[in-house]
Every structure is written in structure tokens, then in C-alpha cells.
Amino acid sequence: MEIDLEHEVSRVSASLLAFDRLAHTLTFRPRGAKPVEIGVDEQTLRNWLQGTLLAAEQPASHAFPHERAIELLVRRLQELHEGGQDPFTPFRDRLRAALTPSLDFSSRSRPVELVS
């Protein structure tokens, strides 16, 4: 089943969160505060929602998985905002890390040689 992520994000979050597929933006609109935006494509947002759902420490619910993931994401963004932080900081860090080439030349990053 293909999910219209733009529609579902808005519906499930009661418009606290909006995704614009064409503009590649996710906007969080905390109540009584200025909206916060991050540039993100649909695949990355789907990955974030999946990660949010997998990291949930709460028992499963009867909601559809995408609905639960959106609810959890909104709750996390709200917690960060209420704590005085940019709610997208963890996600900005992930994007930055994904775009930064790794220069780790430790033995862990070298191929293992098989000795016969």
C-alpha cells in the first residue's frame, strides 16, 4: 500500500508537522512558536519515521505503523522544542554526517585479509 506521506503527516500530526514533497521540506509548527523547517527528501523522511518507530520504547499500539511513527516523531520534536532546542538538531546532525566523507583509516575500516 502506497502512502501519501504529505497528506498523512499533516493528518496524523494535526498539522503540527507538514511535509512538502516538491520543495523537499519538513516543517514543524509548535503551538505558539515560530515554525522550524528542515530540508529533507521523501526517502530520508521515510527512513527517519522507520528509525523513530524502531527506537520506540513504548508498547505497540493498534495504529497503523506510519501513524504511530508520525505521532512519535511529533512527540520527540515537541520535547526538544519545549527543552529550548532546535527540534531538528538530531536530524540535521544525521544529514551532516551522511554528507561528510569518513576519513577513518583505522584497522576496522580496512578489508580483512583471509589467510589460507
Topology:
Blueprint: H1 5-12, E1 17-20, E2 25-28, E3 36-39, H2 42-54, H3 65-82, H4 89-99
Antiparallel strand pairs: 1-2, 2-3
Helix pairs in contact: 2-3
Keywords:
mainly alpha; three-stranded antiparallel beta sheet; 4 helices; 3 strands; globular
Protein architecture, described:
With about 120 residues, the chain is mostly helical. The chain has one domain (about 5-105). About 45% of the residues lie in helices and about 10% in strands. The chain has a three-stranded antiparallel β-sheet. β1 (about 15-20) and β2 form a beta hairpin. α2 (about 40-55) packs across α3.
Number of helical stretches of at least 4 residues: 4
Alpha-beta content class: mainly alpha
Question: What is the radius of gyration?
Answer: 18 Å
Q: For the largest beta sheet, what order do the strands appear in spatially?
A: 1-2-3
Number of strands: 3
